[in-house]
């Protein structure tokens, strides 16, 4: 469902001319302040109207991708992150694109490293799939696609009377999926062979062999960057190749108590930014995390294709 932008029209007051000659004009400080505020309100209203119209025009120009749904399938998630933390992180990330109705994820082996995020419109889901694809969440680039079926949250919102039938169909699909699982077939064949003394058929023995014999690499479990304790030093990642120290200083200078920007020789995509204290660094972190940044143009609009979305977190303590 596409949201239509509301166009605001400033109201104009009409005052009848005075019946007598006007007195000499005097301008008080309050009048000046009110006039400035009124002009600023008009400017803000015009900007909001222009932005809303631009978003509406963009939605008209860009058709929805084929097969777009309100449910986004996310996989290649970091399996070492606790499920409540992962679900909350996905909710915070995806609510930048629309209202999040539900985040579904399970800890079982079949669904590990995967999640379903239900948004309130196909447009919101399409924007999320386009912009969040390959975004590194907890050290792993996410892979996104549109889900093929409706989620429980979406059915509950739009067709609550069909919820029982929807759940019944979902459970049936789950049973079929389990029956066709190659690893399950292999385990059943091995169990049957052990009980009867008859070797499993080659087809059954080969089913799921690739998954079973693939080497398993141990992963290093680290604290997610977003949950590191406060630090007066910030760690900036995903900087574009054209980043320079002066351009980074210009980005962080508006925030109080900046001490130093340190770039890394040979590593243009990362930098450290030091503030005088932790509260100051926290303000800059909250303001600039996920900002789209260009080394030549500085901060650019989120809708621009120029630059990268930078990641700003507290630096790890030594």
From TrEMBL:
Primary localization class, coarse: nucleus
Gene Ontology CC: small nuclear ribonucleoprotein complex; spliceosomal complex
Residue span(s) of domain RRM: 70-149, 232-317
Biased composition (Basic residues): 168-177
GO molecular function, one term: RNA binding
GO biological process entries: mRNA processing; RNA splicing
Keywords, sorted A to Z: mRNA processing, mRNA splicing, Nucleus, Repeat, Ribonucleoprotein, RNA-binding, Spliceosome
Matches recorded under PANTHER family: U1 SMALL NUCLEAR RIBONUCLEOPROTEIN A/U2 SMALL NUCLEAR RIBONUCLEOPROTEIN B
Protein name stated in the entry: RRM domain-containing protein
Source organism: Rhodotorula mucilaginosa (Yeast)
């Amino acid at each position: 469902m596409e949201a239509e932008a509301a166009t605001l029209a400033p109201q104009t007051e009409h005052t009848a001319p005075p019946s007598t000659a006007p007195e000499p004009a005097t301008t008080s400080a309050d009048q000046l302040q009110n006039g400035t505020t009124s002009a600023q309100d008009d400017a803000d209203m015009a900007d909001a109207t222009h932005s809303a119209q631009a978003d509406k025009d963009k939605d008209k120009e860009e058709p929805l991708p084929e097969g777009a749904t309100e449910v986004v399938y996310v996989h290649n998630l970091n399996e070492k992150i606790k499920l409540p933390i992962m679900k909350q992180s996905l909710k915070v990330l995806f609510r930048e694109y629309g209202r999040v109705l539900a985040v579904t994820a399970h800890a079982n082996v079949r669904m590990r490293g995967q999640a379903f995020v239900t948004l309130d419109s196909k447009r919101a889901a399409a924007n999320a799939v386009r912009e969040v694809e390959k975004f590194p969440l907890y050290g792993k680039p996410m892979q996104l696609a549109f889900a093929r079926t409706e989620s429980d949250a979406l059915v509950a919102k739009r067709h609550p009377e069909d919820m029982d039938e929807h759940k019944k169909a979902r459970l049936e699909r789950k049973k079929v999926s389990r029956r066709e699982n190659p690893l399950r077939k292999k385990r059943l064949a091995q169990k049957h062979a052990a009980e009867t003394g008859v070797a499993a058929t080659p087809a059954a023995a080969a089913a799921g062999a690739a998954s079973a014999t693939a080497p398993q690499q141990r992963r290093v479990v680290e604290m997610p960057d977003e949950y590191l304790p406060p630090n007066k030093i910030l760690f900036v990642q995903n900087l574009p190749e054209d980043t320079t120290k002066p351009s980074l200083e210009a980005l962080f200078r508006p925030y109080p108590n900046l001490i130093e920007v340190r770039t890394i020789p040979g590593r243009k995509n990362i930098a450290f930014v030091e503030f005088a204290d932790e509260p100051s660094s926290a303000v800059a972190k909250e303001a600039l995390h996920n900002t789209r940044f260009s080394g030549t143009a500085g901060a650019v609009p989120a809708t621009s294709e120029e630059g990268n979305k930078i990641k700003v977190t507290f630096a790890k303590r030594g």
